[in-house]
Amino acid sequence: MSAGTLAPESLASHEPVLRGQTVVVIGGSSGIGLETARLAQACGGEVVLTGRDPERLRTAAQDVQARSWSAFDATDWDRLDRFFAELPGPVDHVLVTAGRPYYGRLAEIDLAEARHDVDGHLFLPIQVARQALHRVRPGGSLLFLSGTGARRPGLGLVLASTLTVALPALVANLALEVAPVRVNLIAPGFVDTPLSAALLGDQLDARREQLAASLPIGRVVGPQDVAALALHLMTNTALTGATYDIDGGQQLTRG
Fold first, then answer.
1. For helices 158-177 and 111-118, what crossing angle results, to 10°?
2. What residues contact 51, with CB distance under 8 A and at least 6 apart?
3. Cα(222)–Cα(194) distance, rounded to whole angstroms?
């Protein structure tokens, strides 16, 4: 099965490749996390969701017929440990989409917010990987999200660029530490999600139009595209320790 050749809706209509498997989505109340949960459930998996907003998470859990859901901040380490300890048994896959990038010019950086961003993008994967040693079945997978937009230095990217560069190295090392559990990193470019809408505000429509006109694929990448890649990384047991870009060819253009 190849996420590059099958559309998400095609994947959902094929044999339930996740039958009997449990998928935990940390940050599963909207966007990429929710779309991945939908696809996992459609492919036979049992889904467990977490998120910070109880009402939004409850709605998402009903949408995907989640086995269970828990509302908390994933960077609350004690609560995160308790969440894993309270799971009724081993799980097969964990996807972490929690957190949003922190942008700020050097003189304007809020150190408290910056530390929270480092927790969410650097220490959260480490904490989840520690749990995987005891909670994820051999051959299962951990999936983390990064991005492609901050790979080059730029004003306001002091923190975002540093974390973007650090995550592939972290994931490669975690893949050795927690083997035979597999660890991979998904690096999207612009994805048309509620997070993108929150970051861009009234510039969202212009950005969509600009990318649709300039990307080699001729359209904007959606959360369903990323979900299809996530499913592929869950089910292809030869893949570990690598970073997978999904940006519609954005890095090949100047857009």
1. 30
2. 27, 28, 29, 30, 33, 57, 60, 69, 71, 98
3. 11
Per-residue pLDDT tens, the chain, 255 aa: give them.
333 334 444 444 556 899 999 999 999 999 999 999 999 999 999 999 999 999 999 999 999 999 999 999 999 999 999 999 999 999 999 999 977 788 889 999 999 999 999 999 999 999 999 999 999 999 999 999 998 878 888 899 899 899 999 999 999 999 999 999 999 999 998 888 777 777 778 888 888 888 888 999 999 999 999 999 999 999 999 999 999 999 999 888 865
Q: What's the one-letter identity of residue 159?
A: L
For residue 72, give every residue at least 6 positions away whose Cβ sits within 8 Å of its Cβ, in sequence order, or none. 50, 52, 79, 80, 83
Top CATH class of 8-242 equals: alpha beta
